[in-house]
Structure formats: C-alpha cells, structure tokens
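Narrative summary of target 7.
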Amino acid sequence: MSQTAIPSAQLRRSAEDAFAEELEALKAADTRPRPPNWRLSPQAVVTYLMGGEAGALAITPKYIGDRRLMEVAVATLATDRALLLLGVPGTAKSWVSEHLAAAICGTSRLVVQGTAGTSEESIRYGWNYALLLSKGPSREAVVASPIVRAMEEGRIARVEELTRIPSETQDSFITILSEKTMPIPELNEEVAAQKGFNLIATANNRDRGVNELSSALKRRFNTVVLPPPATIEAEIAIVETRVAALGRAFEIPAEPPGADQIRRVVTIFRELRLGVTEDGKSKVKQPSGTLSTAEAISVVGSGLALAAHFGDGRLTAHDLVSGIAGAVVKDPVQDAVIWREYLETVVKERAEWTDFYRAARASA
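Modeled conformation, tokenized:
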C-alpha cells in the first residue's frame, strides 16, 4: 500500500497532504458525476475512506468498519443536510471527519474546536480592532471564522466536540444551517454560502447532557453513529495500521510490534469494555474508563517508544503493562480493584500470558 512519507520536520500532516498521492490518483481516475465544488465523486470519496484502487495505485483504508455508514455520511454531505458523527471516544469520529473534508473539498483545515470556552465569534466572525478603530466597521475589518470561510469558498467546515460548546453558542449554527447565510448586522450585509458548503460535526455520546443539542439544531443534522469495532480482528487491524503510521511519523527505532502483543492489548480492552471474556464464559467487572480503540493505539505506541529507547527494540509485555494499567485505572480506588481482580481471575489463568501476568504483578 502506498502512502506519502511524512517529513521529519513536521510532526503531523493534514490528511490532504499525507495522502495527496492517493487523492490525485482518485481524481485522475474518477469519471462519475461530482456535486458542485467537489473534488471527487461520492463513490470515489467512499473508495478513499474504505480502500480500493485508483488505476495502478492501491488506496489505503482510512476507516475499517461498515461501508454503508460511510456511504450514508457522504450522501448526506451531497445534500443541504449537515452531518453529525456521533459515538463513544475513540471510534474515529475526528479521523473520518478530517478525511471526508480532505477528499471532498481539498482541505480539512477549516475547523472549530469545541470547548466550554468556544465563543460565538469563533463560529461567526470577529473584528480586527486596529482597523475597526482607524476606519470604522468595514468588510476589511471583519475576521472571518473557519465557518464563514467555508461558506464563502464553498467548502466543508468541521466542528469538533459540538456538545462541549455552550448551548447559547450552539444556536449560532441554526441560521447557518437553515438559511445558508451569515448576517453581519454591523455592516447591513450577509455572507451567502456557495455551492459545496456543508458542515461536519462530531460529538461524544458518552458525555450526553454536557450541553445537549436543542431539538431545532438536531433537526438540521443527519446523525451517523460510529460504533466501536464489531470484532476483535477489525480492532486489531485498526491498531496495527495506526501504530505503524505513528512509528513512521515519530521515527521510532523499534521493530514493528508482534501480532501477539497487539492482540493482548486489544483483548484486554475489549473484555473490560464489554464486561465479558472473549470466549463468553466469564463476566468481568467494567472500569470507569472507556478503553477505546484510540487508547489501545496510544498504549501500543507508548510501548514501542519504551522498547526502542529503554529496551532492545522489541515490544514486550513489560513495555505494555504500565500503559494498560494507566488506561484502565482512572479511579485509583474502584478501578484499581477491578484491574487486580482481572489479573488474578483472567490473565493468570492463561498459560500463554504468563509473562504479562508477571510483568503486571511486578509493576503493581
């Protein structure tokens, strides 16, 4: 599978830069109709996300899961409905959002990060106060938000963690999504969205109730729920792919992790997340954390760094134990008891996991 190398001077490249070769190959081979201002047809966008071929070039899968979910997401963006990607932490909402925007409009950088401190100006517009004081209100003095820029250019805007934005600020999206305009009352003007404009928002349904969306705003989104990986094999494939990319990005001088070590991490996370062992024979207590696929990727990546810089370059159980324990034990009292019980009742009984059990007990 071909993938553009990440320069050592840049820590992380945007999707449109990192996968520029794939996007160009898809564009060159794409003969299907494209919605206004789209760089690729909807079918080619799904191929970019799910993997396939573009001429002689293999397209790497960006999302490992149900293809129909990606088809629904892409079809939504080809209409006047905005897209809300909903799911628990670590289900690739932001990752999918970034790649959708990159494939459709060529940039994933028109993004607003939702926090408790996100202001209305971050969504609408602000002012260059030096120009405002010297020349008064003018279009030149307006500082456009990423949303306004997307409207003017006919591109996709992204809003991360929509439900973390205060409710009164969320309401700013209603006019944008309903009227496809942004009023600027100080100038008696408005910004009209150009063809190709749409919005992708992400939200964590584990945090439901933090800043619940109003019914009026919910109606303006088509919601696609991204579930955790359905099978252990799918989750292992995701972790392997993302860890390999991290290893290249950070130039970690370690051997690629063995499949058995990744399988252990994923198995532990799935069993504790679901509350039952993989064989379905034993129930286990669930800790307070989410134990998402993203956290599994982080644990294996951190283990690789430990193995490279403080070991012999081969990922071992000793390198993984501290990361796994840190991911599991969020509550130092309750979760610590659950982790110890899991070690004694599940891990200890698996003969092939003896090295992991010993490493975990030694670090406890």
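The chain is about 45% helix and 15% strand.
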